[in-house]
Amino acid sequence: MTSLGPVLIVRTLLKFPSLKPAIGAPSLIVLFGAMFLLALAANVSVLLAAPLSISPPESWTIRHHQLTVTVTPATHRLAAEDLVHFERVGNESAALRVMLNSHLTVTAIRFGTQALPFSVQPVLSVHDSAHKSDAMTTVTKSGSDPHQIVVHLPDPLRLQKSLTLIFAYHGTIYDPPRPPSGLRYVRSAHTTGHIGPEGVYLSGDTVWYPDITGSLATYSIEVTVPFGWNVVTQGTRLREEAREAVRSQWITRLPSEALTLSGNRFVRQARQWHDMEISTYLLPENRHLANLYLDAAIQYLTFYIDLLGPYPFTKFAVVENFFPSGIGVPSFTLLGSGVIRRGYIQPYALGHEIVHSWIGNAVFNDLSRGNWVEGLTTYLANYYYDERHAASDQARKHRRRMMIEYSLYAPPSEDYPLTQFRHKEHPRDNAIGYHKAAMVFHMLRRELGEAPFFASLRRLVKERIGTYASWETLQHIFEQTAQRPLGWFFEQWITRPGAPQLRIERVYLDHTSQEGTFLRFVVAQTSPTYRLQIPFRVTLESGDTLHLSTELFSTSAYQVGLPLPASPIRLVLDPDFDVLHRIEREHMPPMLNLWVTDSHKAIVLPKHWPRAEQEALEPLLQRLRQHSPDLPQRTRLELTRNESLLVLGNPRYHDRERLFLSGCRNRLTITPEEIQIDGRHFASSETAILVSCPHPRQPGHVISWFYGVSPAAAAKVARLLFFYGWESYFVFQNGRVVARDWFDPPSSVTEVQWNAPSAHSPILSPTPRE
Ligand SMILES: [Zn+2]
């Protein structure tokens, strides 16, 4: 992953909080404001919502909806008739219950021409659907919850195995999107569904048609909107005609959890590609971006069809949304205008949504046993696309980043097993449900080999399309394809929380051996132990490099004995970050996120600095004051305190910069006018830098420094500074990143360096790297 760009993006299967059964969770990409909030949120406890009560099993499920809907944005109104095909899945019952938005009034329910009696009841129990997202434990808006329509079935009907009823209803859907309270950074704008002049958004959360929790249904729908408007929904558009009003007809062939519909004054642009249609529905001012999205969509589809098998739908559309969002539903994605304008076509963005076409929107997530969909989608889109298309070093960096993110945001005291991950509420959930899970798929791929791994994924899609799948389903499919048991793998990585901690111990180097140089060392892991096979790399004095691996072991100590043709100068365990393990803070490369996540931290501001300099940093200071009012503020450097520091302001207003950055040793030199990093010079008035060095005296803490050569250069970055948390330095020119990289960690327990290999010193202990 080369850049997270100017916005930080988090993907989640997120349900809006509401006291109702969750129906048809779309996958949401949530855009949020400032990354430093991640740390500041550390004190906010978030519930992985537990079911409050469990409803009795349903007697009926829905197999098909035939909807005729008129939507009037000016009055927020919807009038509809839904011909619903039910199938009995439980015991016979005189009552058939469906959910419907409580702002919609049912005027009639008919069996053919026969009107059936019905009653309306409030939903008394909040339950967590076995298959759909969690019910939440907070209510944010009254009145948007569904009510229950109870149809009283006469004798002959209650005995039937299937039943088709017509529901006529109308009402208003008015829930204008609003910023969520609390954790802004993990939530998108918030609505359960809205019809208004600014746009139409109806989803499973809206419950805008009669529904039964757990139903997987197909849909055919005819929608009428005023002239000048048009809609897009799932499936194939059969026809559209525009007279006084615009009427369109759509049909889905594959069952899905819910039907999402979006309406606006779209400009539709489409291309026929093989037997499918690739289209964009953009607002007029963004219509010029259509080709960008069409080209990118085709590029991803080509790649993922090759990887995962036939695309499950007849179309893919990129649809502009009137509120900030990144919603992936079967056959289209809904992106807010802001991201549309930014060209949101990266693998972690558009690529991710396209992978959801197979994973999540064609094979569904059985959330009762944990969410596997986000981890696999993250692996295939955010990671694997780059592995295949970018330099190999990028893939290695990406794995390292995922491992560090997991270690930093899911410390042992807050960790939980993947079977408990549902969706993202907190950076910890992102670290576990997305990054740890993606690494688990990486390890599974290494364990099985390329061909069985990808064959299993194709088999998963082929065999489970239109149905739910869980981690157990995945285990079963991988075992069948690979023809061997994988219970141990899934037990240690999915059912158990955590990850192993690794270290090199008892290094012994014997130059007197008859075989030349003999290296012995122990690979140690903490308890509970994992079954692991760990690659390691030995660099020799001769310049040669040996790429080796332990055997599979599950003991706390595994001894390696190795004859070498020359003296070693470096030994590194898991040099390419292929085996997920926990990395301690003091063994991480320095970066701003070490400051962000530190429970002991302060900022250092100059005692006297000119107004222009101060004003340049004001947006940053404001955010810090707002989100962390108790953050200690220092005016001079004090290295004796046990804390991480964020230094702000040009070095001409600080007097001890050598001390500040001494943890970076000789990698960089800064002066008020010039920055030198690894031999590169940056010295224009447009230059700004964010650099982090290990705290020279307090292991595990960091000193980060941000300044501009000119106030204007700093001002261009200040507002977004916390988006640059994941590397050791970023050099900006005119607000754009022109150089970035990690520095080495200050110490390591998975690496040994021999500084002065010599026949006279046969025994060396692992030394912290200098
Ligand atoms: Zn996703």
The CATH homologous superfamily of the largest domain: tricorn interacting facor f3 domain
The top-level CATH class of the largest domain is: Mainly Beta
Widest β-sheet, arrangement of strands = 7-6-10-4-3-13-16-15
Q: Report the β-strand fraction as a percent range.
A: 25-35%
Number of helices: 16
Given the helix and strand composition, which structural class is it?
A: alpha+beta
- Overall residue-averaged pLDDT value: 85
Count of distinct strands = 41
Under CATH, the topology of the largest domain can be stated as: Immunoglobulin-like
The global form is globular
Q: In angstroms, what separates the terminal alpha carbons?
A: 29 Å
Helix share bin: 10-25%
Integer count of domains: 4
Radius of gyration: 29 Å
What bound compounds does this protein have? zinc ion
Largest sheet: 8 strands, mixed
Which ranges are low-confidence, i.e. pLDDT below 50, for 5 or more consecutive residues? 1-55, 125-143, 182-187, 756-770
Instruction: Tell me which CATH architecture of the largest domain applies here.
Output: Sandwich
Draw up the topology in text:
Blueprint: E1 8-13, E2 27-32, H1 37-40, E3 60-72, E4 77-88, E5 95-101, E6 104-111, E7 114-115, E8 118-122, E9 146-152, H2 155-158, E10 162-172, E11 194-196, E12 199-202, E13 218-226, E14 230-233, E15 236-242, E16 245-251, E17 261-264, E18 267-273, E19 276-282, H3 290-308, E20 315-321, E21 326-329, E22 332-336, H4 337-341, H5 347-355, E23 364-365, H6 373-389, H7 392-409, H8 427-448, H9 450-464, E24 468-469, H10 471-482, H11 487-495, E25 502-510, E26 517-525, E27 535-540, E28 545-549, E29 557-564, E30 568-573, H12 592-596, E31 601-604, H13 611-616, H14 618-627, E32 633-634, E33 644-648, H15 657-660, E34 668-670, E35 675-677, E36 680-682, E37 687-694, E38 702-708, H16 711-718, E39 729-733, E40 736-741, E41 751-753
Parallel strand pairs: 3-13, 19-20, 20-22, 23-24, 31-32, 31-33, 33-38
Antiparallel strand pairs: 1-2, 2-21, 3-4, 4-10, 5-9, 6-7, 6-10, 8-9, 11-12, 12-17, 13-16, 14-17, 15-16, 18-19, 21-22, 25-26, 26-29, 27-28, 27-30, 30-41, 34-35, 35-36, 37-38, 37-39, 39-40
Helix pairs in contact: 3-5, 5-6, 6-7, 6-8, 7-8, 8-9, 9-10
The protein binds zinc ion (ZN).
Zinc ion binds next to helix 6.
